[in-house]
Every structure is written in structure tokens, then in C-alpha cells.
Amino acid sequence: MRMELTHFDQTGKARMVDVTDKQDTAREAIAEGRVSMMPETLELIKSGHIGKGDVLGVAQVAGIMGAKKTPELIPMCHPLILTGVTMNFTINETAIAVDIRGTAKTSGKTGVEMEALTAVAAAALTIYDMCKAVDRGMTIEYIRLTAKSGGKSGIYARGEETCLEK
After folding, report:
1. Active site residues
2. What is the dihedral of CA 118, 119, 120, 122, to 10 degrees?
3. Which of 18, 22, 94, 101 is the most exposed place for a label (fewest CB within 10 A)?
4. What's the predicted TM-score (pTM) here?
């Protein structure tokens, strides 16, 4: 199956895809990622003793703001009216990490995959920023789309285990 790239015109120049004639549908996308760190850093997050404040609370707001700002960051993304953005954080003792899941929803002509991915990336960067004074060796990993629904292409679900299951 050969997929056509839609963000290029016949001459190979970048363009924003014209979605004028597409039908509005309910759309949802889920992305996830992980911030790995030293055990001491994870303990500071859990105990609320990071000097910059409530790490996961600030990361939650950053993720929502990131989703809303996606078309300002990613050149070919259409501005969307987001109907919902949720952020979930799990302290992963086994991986010594914070696992992040972001969900974006809309009813419109184009999907919200980039908004969900940007939400996770913004939340992960915020965790890094708030904890870097005690742990510059943190890593941001596994940012990826795990599911999407709506639109002409229908449902997508990542077939392998997600990072939240590792």
C-alpha cells in the first residue's frame, strides 16, 4: 500500500492541506511519553520537595497549553477548536520515571494527533525544566501516538505494548 504525502503540491513545495470539503467528525488522539530520572529526583517529585513547586501540576497545565498552541509550533497544522485535553501522570517506580499520557479531542475536519503529541512533549519538557537543578541527566523517551479515532482513516491503535506497560 503506497501512501501519498498530502503536505506537498505537484511541484514538491510544502503546503497546508485543504480540508474544506471534508466532513466534521468526532476525533480523539492519545499520546504518551516518559521522563526517566534518578531515584532521588522521583522521590522529590513524589514528596513535593522540588524547589520550583508542584511539578506534575505545572506539567499538566503545560501539556494543555501545548496542545492549544500546536498550530503555532508545527507549521502545517490547522488551528483547531479543541473540545477537550486531558493529561495523566503515573509515577513509575519500576522504570524510575514519570509516565505521561495526553488525550486531545475535537469535532472537526482534521485530526488531533499533533495536539496530543505536543501536549505530552510540553509536559515532559516542563518536568525536565522543573527538576533540572537536581538532575540534568533526565531523559525524555517514548513520545508517540498510541491511539486515534475519527475521520476518513478511522481507528488506529498501536499494536505493541505502550511505554506505560514497560
Report:
1. 129
2. 80
3. 94
4. 0.89
